[in-house]
């Protein structure tokens, strides 16, 4: 008998396998404060109770990416403890706000598998769902992760790569109900730009940059209870000739915080349509980002509409290194300084006429 928990390796997964992840997690105001300390988040609804009440909420919700990263962390011991790297996301839907005191429980289903040609690892595709203490789904997503094999010679079944939606359709976006008070947001941010003021194709170079310290990404992965060896175990990474990787969700959170300048009046993230961690990030790297408006979306609401955005993050370079493809052109291959390419949809107030 053995109680050693070595996690799942690639050959342990089967399409259709369902996993109920331990343990449910109650999020608190302390989690919010630590998240702000790690990322510098200035999201309006998450910054002050007075902001949230003035804009029509009974209390301020937790930041979307704090919720996502916490729910993601629940899946790690079962799915990516033995990961080489997390590769990408699709169909991430934020379905309901989460408040301090809410408890999240997460389940996953394996929806695809593909062994790599080296036979040393393979890619695992999973669909995960987070629910609150009332059983309501608050978040769902697909991700794919490269996982080591325990035995390179182990036989694996036929490859199955699931089809994913390139964009979460407008009809599947859960925006919530906002009233006319939401138009008061410029009085809090000091910036008048609302949904009407953004144009498709517009580029926003965010002026800030943030250096990732060893303590930053170490504390972040602990906050999310993300126990993947690639982030935690420097000895194991050095034995393989590498260094600890910064968790990709932390890079997304940092870029979201940096993008506040230019997108001050964002209310929430409605969906992540797709995302890739293009190159690794390590402690000491400095992150900067730029955003392009891909589309403007009618959500069928009087006071709020959607913007589909593409944010590209780079390490140790200015935003001049970021190239967005022109309309109608294919996306160019990314240079080595690009670490994140994120396609997501946000909610923003419309100008009241």
From TrEMBL:
Known InterPro entries for this protein? Answer: HotDog_dom_sf (IPR029069), MC_hydratase (IPR048274), MCH/BMMD (IPR052342), Thiol_ester_hydratase_Rv0216 (IPR016790)
Keywords, A to Z, come to: Plasmid
The signal peptide here is none
* Organism in which the protein naturally occurs: Cupriavidus taiwanensis
Q: Entry's Pfam families?
A: MC_hydratase
Taxonomy, superkingdom: Bacteria
* MF term (GO), any: lyase activity
Does the UniProt entry include the keyword Metal-binding?
no
Q: Does the keyword Nucleotide-binding apply?
A: no
Name under which the protein is recorded: Acyl dehydratase MaoC
């Amino acid at each position: 008998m053995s109680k050693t928990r070595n996690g799942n390796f690639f050959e342990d997964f089967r399409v259709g396998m369902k996993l109920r992840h331990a343990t449910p997690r109650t999020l608190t105001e302390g989690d919010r404060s630590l998240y702000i300390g790690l990322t510098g988040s200035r999201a309006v609804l998450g910054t002050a109770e007075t902001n949230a009440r003035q804009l029509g909420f009974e209390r301020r919700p937790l930041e979307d990416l704090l919720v996502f990263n916490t729910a993601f962390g629940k899946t790690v011991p079962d799915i990516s403890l033995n990961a080489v790297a997390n590769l990408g996301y699709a169909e991430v839907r934020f379905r309901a706000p989460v408040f301090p005191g809410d408890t999240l429980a997460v389940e996953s289903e394996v929806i695809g598998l593909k062994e790599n040609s080296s036979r040393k690892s393979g890619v695992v595709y999973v669909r995960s769902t987070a629910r609150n203490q009332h059983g309501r789904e608050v978040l769902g997503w697909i991700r794919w992760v490269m996982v080591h094999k325990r035995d390179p010679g182990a036989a694996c079944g036929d490859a199955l790569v699931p089809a994913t939606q390139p964009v979460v359709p407008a009809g599947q976006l859960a925006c919530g109900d906002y009233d006319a008070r939401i138009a008061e947001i410029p009085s809090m941010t000091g910036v008048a730009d609302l949904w009407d003021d953004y144009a498709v194709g517009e580029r926003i170079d965010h002026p800030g940059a943030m250096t990732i310290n060893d303590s930053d990404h170490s504390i972040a992965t602990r906050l999310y209870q993300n126990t993947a060896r690639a982030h935690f175990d420097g000895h194991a990474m050095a034995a393989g000739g590498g260094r600890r990787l910064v968790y990709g969700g932390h890079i997304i959170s940092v870029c979201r915080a940096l993008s506040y300048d230019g997108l001050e009046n964002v209310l929430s993230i409605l969906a992540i349509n797709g995302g890739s961690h293009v190159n690794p990030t390590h402690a000491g790297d400095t992150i900067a980002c730029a955003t392009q408006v891909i589309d403007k979306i009618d959500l069928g609401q009087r006071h709020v509409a959607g913007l589909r955005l593409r944010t590209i993050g780079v390490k140790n370079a200015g935003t001049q290194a970021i190239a967005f493809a022109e309309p109608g052109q294919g996306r160019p291959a990314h240079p080595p300084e690009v670490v994140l390419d994120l396609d997501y949809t946000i909610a923003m107030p419309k100008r009241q006429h």
